[in-house]
Amino acid sequence: MSSAPGPFLHQLRVRFADEDHAGIVYYPRFFHFFHVAFEEMFFARLGGAANYRELLDQRKVGFPAVRAEIDFAGPLRFGDLVEIELSVDRIGTKSVSFAYRASRCEGDERHPAAAGKVTCAAVDLATFRSIPIPDDLRALFEALRRDVA
Question: Among 34, 86, 91, 122, which one is least packed by beta carbons within 10 Å?
Fold first, then answer.
């Protein structure tokens, strides 16, 4: 996992439950992989699970998806090691677009599997109304821009 400015990297292993009958990762699972990397980024960059839980439970700030898209480049199969790269594509006043790249790892080589984007709105979880992105989270997202590294 990375903690320096720039894109965040997270690796995970494809599980049996991720496959479809054709023996490849079922396409919606890529969005699950993206969300796992999103959560791990908060854990790594905010200093642990307690801080992400605090964001949701005490601060009542959430980031539900309002748009999602993906392009597929190659299959993933059970047992594959996958690296998810998360960066920020755009930051607005009340929304942020996260860019994801999923790659199959073979030693030092990376083989593209998918690239996607998920746009999330900042919301007050008590009212579920949009809010401006809090300054500390805006700084976190700014540090995830690809050109920061």
Answer: 91
